[in-house]
Amino acid sequence: MTIMRLVRVNNDDPPSRTRLRCAAIMEALQPGFGDADRVSRVPMPVIRVTRKTGAETLQPGNGRFDDQEIGKDGHRLCARTFKTASAAALGSGTMMYPTKTALVIRADLLSWQIANVAAFLSGGLAGTYPEIVGEPYCDGDGRLYTPMIREPVFVYGATSAELARTHGRALNRGIRFAIYTEPLFKTTNDADNRANVAATATAGLDLVGLGFHADRKIIDKITGGLKFLA
Questions:
Q1: Which of 62, 72, 89, 120 could form a disulfide with 85 if both were Cys (CB 3.0 to 4.6 A apart)?
Q2: Which domain holds residue 149?
Q3: Whose CA is closest to 179, among 189, 188, 170, 192?
Q4: Which of 139, 137, 230, 223 lies closest to 175 in space, CA to CA?
Q5: What is the pLDDT of residues 35-73, one digit of tens each?
Q6: Could you say which of 70, 92, 114 is where a domain stops?
Q7: Statement to judge: residues 220 and 112 lie in one domain
Q8: Number of domains present in the structure of the chain
């Protein structure tokens, strides 16, 4: 993405209203002319989608974008722009990250236990790797909500033996990761959780969940052989 100097505006009737409470750029970037490295993401409405890539004349609308249907098949479209992405990624509307986030949870847990473990592991990863947290959400009325993890979280199921094997692989690769053990279902606060883990040797940890974030290739090695949690 390149920053260009604005010379003039031929039509001051934009295709949709500006919501000041929902800024396009959520941080004070202050990029200079021609400086693309300090630009993050800028959302914008789709006015028209062409079949071929190329320059074309803009056709400003009547100020009603929200109830306007765009696209050959009548589906509402949403424009997403990224600072860096491959042509294939942009074409599919997704962005591939060089990192990967994965949870490995014991498959025989009860439903509420699986949800509980996934929540705690995800919180641990977000606290340790703040770069995986995305931008705040904003609804159509300008109300702000908290950010979420910016990239997909892959959730794998495993047996106790597979959890132990995966834990060992992660240790051998020297990454920092999150764990959840069986006794933590019976504790009620973080201090007791940490005390329980601290009193248990590595080999004696009764693992029910692991959370990872690292280079994509490293995570693939660590989770190799596991299947997604059904």
A1: 89
A2: 99-228
A3: 170
A4: 223
A5: 555 545 555 565 555 555 555 454 544 443 333 333 444
A6: 92
A7: yes
A8: 2
